[in-house]
């Protein structure tokens, strides 16, 4: 505020000093520029006021949403999905994440509106680009959060029912997270062709690795499974013939 008052006092003094000098080659362009600045200052003050009000409203809405989600038991439900053996994840709070996300989105919207009030073409273009890109960014964040919760839940579920299958649980979690990362990058529009190609390559590599492991490393297991399937088919055919 002190700097703003300083500038407001300084600009008229500079204009008056230039007029006293009466050097048109210097004073006329300088006075014209300073007059434009003086006309531009009210819009800047309005923009600052809009941002201040936006921050105030964003904090209220964010805290209110966090309180509501926490009150309905969202955090308790999420904690049940997460593995109990990981102490770091027990401090995970979905209500706080949603509240903070909504708060920053509201601040961003008010900031874009403040930029539009300033009425500078370059800043308006930036504001429009931010608003148009915002839904994709929100979708990417939602995908990452949901995938993270789903991956943790799948991992804990596998470990609970199959205590010795830790590698399988880790693989399942990794597949979900990798899939979510590719989906988020695709949603953000970051090198879509490269992301899609990389996803196809990774998925094909998993499929080939599983096929090789099952065909070579688990040859006996695969043979036994196929024999059981064949015997069941033969038994079913014999029953049909007898009927």
Model description:
- Helix content is 88%, strand content 0%.
- The chain contains 8 helices and no strands.
- The longest helix is centred in the N-terminal third of the chain and has 48 residues, at 24-71.
Radius of gyration: 32 Å
Mean pLDDT, as a whole number? Answer: 75
Q: Provide the succession of SSEs.
A: HHHHHHHH
As residue ranges, the low-confidence spans are: none
How much of the sequence is in beta strands? under 5%
How would you sum up the major sheet?
Answer: none
**Helical percentage:** over 70%
Cα distance, first to last residue? 96 Å
Shape: elongated
Strand tally: 0
Please give the count of helices: 8
Helix/strand-derived class? mainly alpha
Secondary structure layout:
Blueprint: H1 2-21, H2 24-71, H3 74-81, H4 94-118, H5 121-161, H6 166-188, H7 192-217, H8 219-242
Helix pairs in contact: 1-2, 2-4, 4-5, 5-6, 6-7, 7-8
State the main characteristics.
single chain; 88% helix
Tell me briefly what this model is.
With about 240 residues, the chain is an all-alpha fold.
């Amino acid at each position: 505020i002190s700097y703003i008052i300083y500038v407001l006092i300084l600009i008229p003094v500079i204009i008056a000093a230039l007029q006293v000098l009466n050097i048109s080659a210097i004073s006329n362009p300088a006075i014209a520029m300073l007059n434009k600045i003086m006309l531009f200052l009210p819009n800047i003050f309005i923009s600052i006021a809009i941002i201040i009000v936006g921050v105030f409203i964003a904090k209220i809405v964010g805290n209110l949403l966090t309180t509501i989600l926490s009150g309905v038991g969202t955090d308790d439900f999420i904690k049940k999905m997460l593995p109990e053996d990981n102490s770091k994840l027990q401090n995970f709070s979905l209500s706080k994440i949603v509240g903070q996300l909504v708060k920053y989105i509201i601040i961003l919207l008010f900031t874009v509106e403040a930029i539009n009030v300033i009425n500078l073409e370059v800043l308006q273009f930036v504001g429009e680009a931010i608003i148009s890109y915002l839904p994709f960014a929100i979708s990417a964040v939602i995908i990452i959060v949901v995938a993270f919760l789903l991956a943790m839940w799948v991992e804990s579920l596998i470990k609970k029912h199959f205590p010795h299958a830790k590698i399988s649980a880790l693989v399942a979690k990794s597949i979900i997270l990798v899939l979510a990362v590719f989906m988020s990058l695709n949603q953000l529009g970051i090198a879509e062709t490269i992301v899609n190609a990389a996803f196809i390559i990774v998925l094909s590599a998993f499929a080939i690795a599983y096929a090789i492991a099952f065909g070579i490393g688990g040859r006996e297991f695969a043979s036994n499974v196929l024999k059981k399937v064949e015997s069941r088919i033969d038994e079913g055919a014999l029953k049909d013939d007898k009927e």
